Amino acid sequence: MNFALSDEQMLLREAARGALSRHPNLEAARAALEDPSALPDLWPTAVEAGWPGLLIAEEYGGAGLGTFDALLVAEECGRVLASVPVLGLFPATAILQDAGDSSLPAVAAGELRPVYVPARPPGDLDPSWTVEAKAGMARNEAPEATIEGDGVVFEGSVAFVPDAPGADLLVAIGETAGGAVVAGAIEAQAEGVTIEPVMRYDATRSLGHVSFSAARGRLLGGASDKVSTHDAVAGAWYLAQALIAAESLGAVQTCLEVSVAYAKERFTFGRAIGSYQAIKHELTEVLRRQENARGLQYYAGWAGESNPSEFPLAASAARSASGRALDFAARSMINVHGGIGATWEHDAPLFFRRAQLSRRLLGGTHEATDRVAEQMLAAAA
């Protein structure tokens, strides 16, 4: 199996890197810790690059690309901690595309920014659909959904929704009284919808607590038989897992590159610190974890397009490996730089903050690891 990038994929990655290089993302990330308004609005950049329509079919004005391509874009965002709302965008567009929703042309053109309001599929450890809670280790039940003709009414709340503040359309997930899972598209300004912006650890990661109080939206699939709602919604969750993995992998690459460069130029006792065994072994371990995570990311990208039955395992494995790789790489970056690596002026703490938030978001790295165990045990049985 050849996992090498195609010429088109390499061009996409280079174009994404070039688009993001026009903004001082790391400088803005540092400034945003004091003033969140210091972050640049990168949505126009995303629209110019065509990312809103990346997963949308050409008939709706999109690019008609796949999971692998979305992960490449997310990876480049992670390299510079860019505040592009891809984590909320791509899973939302995937659900909208599967449902053939009327909003697709506007979304592809960048006139409408959708966001995915995530719900975790049932598993061995929790038999129901669940969402993030504002506090505590326990997860909450997914919002209650009531189908009314072609519409659906949601009641409930979801905490720490990526990219929710400023979104135009919420792609929400809920369970009916009969236990069926449904997806709905709700205008962010609709009656009964509340979005409370919140910041944790990483100022570049836009988060919001979303609440629904008899909020009505369009039913996506389900009763209209346009799509297998369960498969589409579960796929969106695993796509979000793969996207966090890709962002984390991009951040690991920057941590390693900056650390290696410093290890070559910083001298002590007449020798570059990179020549000392302790530094060499630590940076080699970062490289090992990075390449392991990269292989799993490519596997997730392939499975998302060519073998959907393996996508839950592949995405969860990539999330588990990348999350741990970034945590190790960020700590290593601080260690290699010594005292200056822990100062406010250095970039290392910014990547450490991203690592700590990423390993807790959307179920967390530990939940992804549990999913890998669940999938492997099921396969063995």
> Total number of β-strand segments?
11
What CATH architecture label of the largest domain applies? Answer: Up-down Bundle
Please, how many domains? 3
By DSSP (H or I, 4+ residues per run), the number of helices equals 11
* Outline type: globular
Instruction: Tell me the series of helices and strands, N- to C-terminal.
Output: HHHHHHEEEEEEEEEHEEHHHH
Helical content (DSSP H or I, runs of 4+)? 40-55%
Stretches where pLDDT falls below 50 for ≥5 residues? 223-228
CATH topology of the largest domain: Butyryl-CoA Dehydrogenase, subunit A, domain 3
Give the end-to-end Cα distance, rounded to a whole number of Å: 27 Å
Biggest β-sheet: count, sense, barrel? 7 strands, mixed
Beta strand %: 15-25%
Using only C-alpha atoms, the radius of gyration works out to: 21 Å
Structural class: alpha+beta
At the first level of CATH, the class of the largest domain is Mainly Alpha
Q: What's the rounded overall pLDDT mean?
A: 93
- Spell out the CATH superfamily of the largest domain: Butyryl-CoA Dehydrogenase, subunit A, domain 3
